[in-house]
Amino acid sequence: MPQLFPANPSATMVIRHVTPDIVTMSLPFARFGRLQFGGRGTLVKLASGSLAVFSPVGLTSEVRETVESLGGNVKYITAPDIEHHLNLTPWKNTYPQAEILAPEGLYEKRQSNPEFKDTPFKHVFKKEDQLPRSISKEFDAEFESEYVYGHGSRELVFFHKPTRTVIEADLLFNLPAKEQYSRTPEAGTNFLTKLIMPLLSTKPPATWQRRFAWYILSSQDRAAFTESMKRIDQWDFDRLIPCHGDTIETGAKGIFRDVMAWHLEQKNT
């Protein structure tokens, strides 16, 4: 199997405070061992003092120190889709009080792997859930969520209202992954990555990523995907933290509308 993450993540991970209460943990990640998408986990400290982690990365000593610096009370561990789940079990074992959030189907998928098997899920997002979904009083006070079940990977997207920040996994990409490869000599731009860059770039007018969202990401259930995009469009966000590519520090709402234009307009032009 191709190596997805670096053998020594401590040597290449970039841990950064995006806001006083949001920390990103960025590192190299190569899909199929060659496509340099970059990977990122995000920690959010709630007003209650509880911590929520989204798309958790490996628990290096530096990551543990970061968790402790934020109070250490990891309460929520989120797998934002059926692909971003490899570190759920180590985090749950280390922070047993934490509750796992995940999309339907992921628990069943993990049962074939002895390493992951039987790790308990507390909150499973399902297609038939009533809206708005509720996790807990403290979580609901700060986050809105959208289950994009029309996405092939069953995306969970979160909006942190106090900081106007959207946190997502494979809904919108922002390559090249400059920050995630900033501590490596590769710079996230090998030949194969450059070939697929237009599909995963937000550079205006983002025509190719718009096509990628329309023809690939939403192909499983385009109507449901479109309804999800309309609900996300109602959120008042300015920043977007993707798992793949650089964080969009400001102006993210306009970029989202550009990439998802065909869905928001309900037409393909």
TrEMBL record:
UniProt feature coiled coil, ranges: none
Give the InterPro entries listed for this entry.
DUF4336, RibonucZ/Hydroxyglut_hydro
Going by the entry's taxonomy, the superkingdom of the source organism is recorded as Eukaryota
Spell out the SUPFAM superfamilies in the cross-references. Metallo-hydrolase/oxidoreductase
Indicate the secretion signal residues: none
- Protein known as: Beta-lactamase-like
Q: What species is given as this protein's source?
A: Penicillium roqueforti (strain FM164)
**Species lineage, top-down?**
Eukaryota, Fungi, Dikarya, Ascomycota, Pezizomycotina
